[in-house]
C-alpha cells in the first residue's frame, strides 16, 4: 500500500482524527493517512496491499501497546511484549477493540449463546433453581443425549424428503424408478431392493400396493444378498436420510448435495418446535419461564 493522501496538513484536532504519518509496518511504504473518528471508515485494497498492516499491525498495535504501558510493571511483565510499530507519527489514538474475522466454525450447533458460553451459565442457573428440578446442567443441553430433542437430535430442524424427487413412480425398479444418485439400476443399493424378493421388479411403482410402497420407502428387513456382500434392507427414504440428510452438506459430493437440495425441505422440528430440547428440559422453569424462552429473548430482556 502506498500513500493515498497528498493534501496539505490541516490544523485538525487529535480529538477528530487518528493521524498516521510514515507508516512502514510490514509492506507499508511511508503511508500518511488521517482517519476520522466517530465515523465508520473502511480500508479497502487488493489482497496484500497492506490493509491489515495499517489497521491491525500499526494503529491497533500501537493503541494496545500504549494501553499496556499504563499497567503496573508486574502486570506488564506478565503480558506479551508489544514492539512499537514502524511509524513516524501516530496521534489521536484511543483505546482499540480488535474484532478479527476468525470464523467460529461451520458447526450448525453453534449459537451466540454457545460460542460465548452464556448458555452454559444459564443452564447452571436452571439446574440449581428451576422447577421441576433436573438432574444437572447436562439435562438442559441440546448437545447432550439427556437434554436433546430425540426427533431432531438437538439441531432444532428436521428435513423431509419429497418422494417424487427421489422416485419416478411411472417406472419400475428395472427401469430406474429410484432416481436419486447412488441408487441407479445395477448399483449396490439398487440390488438391495431388486433382490429383496419384496417387489415385482417390472411393475411401475405407481401400481404398488400401499404396503409395497411403504416397504420401498421406509421398510426394514433382513440382509439381502447383493452378489458382493449382504446388506440390510432399508427403505429408500430411510437410507437417504441416514446416509446423506443427517450429514454435514459440505462433506457430501456436489452431485449428492444438489440432489438433496432439490429433494429435501428443512423446517423447525415438530417435536420441539425448533427449541432443540426434549420435553423434560422444556418443562423446567424459573418464574414460569422455561430456559427455551431465554434462548429467544433479546439480551436486554434476558438480563
Ligand atoms: Zn426437535
Number of domains: 3
Head-to-tail CA distance between termini: 45 Å
Sequence of secondary-structure elements: EEHHEHHEHHEEHHEHEEHH
Structural class: alpha+beta
The count of strands amounts to: 9
Extract low-pLDDT stretches: 1-7
Strand order of the largest sheet: 2-1-3
Average pLDDT metric: 88
User: Sheet with the most strands?
Assistant: 3 strands, antiparallel
Shape annotation = elongated
User: Which CATH architecture of the largest domain?
Assistant: Orthogonal Bundle
- As a whole number of angstroms, the C-alpha radius of gyration is 30 Å
* Ligands and ions found: zinc ion
Q: At the fourth CATH level, what is the homologous superfamily of the largest domain?
A: ABC transporter ATPase domain-like
CATH class category label of the largest domain: Mainly Alpha
What's the tally of helices?
11
What fold name goes in the CATH topology slot of the largest domain? Helicase, Ruva Protein, domain 3
> Roughly what fraction of the amino acids lie in strands?
5-15%
**Helix content range of the residues, please?**
25-40%
